[in-house]
Every structure is written in structure tokens, then in C-alpha cells.
Amino acid sequence: MRTTRQMSITLPVEMADSVRAKVASGDYASESEVIREGLRALEAREEAVERWLRTEVVATCEAFRANPDSGIPAAEVRASIEKLHRERVEAEARRREAALRDPES
């Protein structure tokens, strides 16, 4: 019994070029091998997310249900995120200004 199935797929030009480049570089023996590796990576990522949801997220929800006072108010979370974003934007602006003053740094 056959363990493979032939398929025809359509990819955007950039992706098709990337697949061909990986084969041409010698990293992969065929275009099918590149696609299989990509699907394996996708499946691994999906499994990791599922594990995270079943372990950490469920445990956190259960802990919150047991002690709702342990939660952080949404307004406080939002303010913290906004502060972090503002700090990053300001740091990036300082980095760009420094690069303009001294392009060789």
C-alpha cells in the first residue's frame, strides 16, 4: 500500500522561489522535502500552543477562579502595556537620532 499521496499546490511567487532556493542550496533534496519540513514545523507549533493552553492557561484560569482577588485590573494592564510601548518608541527615536548624529556607530 502506498504511503504517500501526490498533490498539486499553488504558492505565491516569493514562496515558490524560496522553496526552489532551498533545494538549489543543497539544504533539501526536493521541493516536496521543503514542504514536508514546513508542515512538520507548523504541526510542532500547533502542538506547543495546545500544550500551553492545556497546562499554563488552564492552570492560570483555575487559580484565578479560586482567588479572583489575585487578578490585575484591565486598566492597570493597559497602562503597563502603554508605558512599555512608549518607552520602546522613545528608545527607538533616541537610537535613530544617535545614528543620524554619528552614522558610523
Which tags fit this structure?
105 residues, 2 domains
Written overview of the protein:
The protein is an all-alpha fold and 105 residues long. It folds into 2 domains: 11-70, no CATH class; 72-105. 72% of the residues lie in helices and 0% in strands. The mean pLDDT is 95.
Question: Could you provide a short overview of the structure?
Answer:
The protein is mainly alpha-helical and 105 residues long.
> In DSSP terms, counting alpha (H) and pi (I) runs of 4 or more, how many helices?
3
Rg from Cα: 24 Å
Mean pLDDT: 95
Please mark out the parts with pLDDT under 50 across 5 or more consecutive residues, or reply none. Answer: none
What's the main sheet like?
Answer: none
Q: Which class do the helix and strand fractions yield?
A: mainly alpha
Task: Give the overall silhouette.
Answer: flat
- The number of distinct β-strands equals 0
Order of helices and strands: HHH
Give the count of structural domains.
Answer: 2
What percent strand? under 5%
Helix content: over 70%
Ends: how far apart?
Answer: 63 Å
